[in-house]
Amino acid sequence: MVEEENSVDKMEGQDEMEIVEEVVSEGKYESGSTGESKSLSPEVVGDTEKEDKGEGDSKKPEGLYEEIALAEGISASVDGHKLMMKKGDNEIVREIHPFIEVKVESDRVVLSCDRERKIERKLFGTNKAHVRNMVKGLSEGFVYKLKVANVHFPMKVSYNKDSNEVVVNNFLGEKVDRKIKLVDGVEVSVKGEDIEISSANIESAGNAAAQIEKGTKVRNKDRRIYQDGIFITEKPGRVFG
Fold it and tell me: Are residues 146 and 181 in the same domain?
């Protein structure tokens, strides 16, 4: 038993010596055949660091950034976080979220944000869409179309420009006219059963169309039978069948 233990110890010692010799030989191979360590010059070290850092390559701007061009004839100005655009008699004012920095540079509006968290990305996309709608509204305008549907009682629809109200007469046989007050900044055209609302501000046009549709909503009756009312048939980017 003693001899076996001594043989095992010798084998373990030989293994350890072989491992040490391999490590030493690897160190000699890396340092060179002479055994002297090679040191890199400062110039070589600097070049390698530049290669690692990628100096000279164009860096992407940090944060969120977007430039929105202004159409011809549109002027823009910024007061704090309030963006104002004007063309002729039409003017649109939009409050930009405090997280988003807005400024006007010659013929474009620049939006930027230093941080790129999830909340900033959402707010940046929303405000970017608002600014684009402002430009499109002043250059082209937004139009909503509605249709008057008569099933039981023939109703008459008119627009009072002085009071900015849509007047609905004889809706479901009612003796009192329904008067729907609209927001300012919209133009209303009534031609028979067709109503057209136009505005440079998409929110004002959409609000007016929704108020008219809501003002002729049938309540406490079976909608399968009483289908009278005024309904939106077309809005920017979508047409209802």
Answer: yes
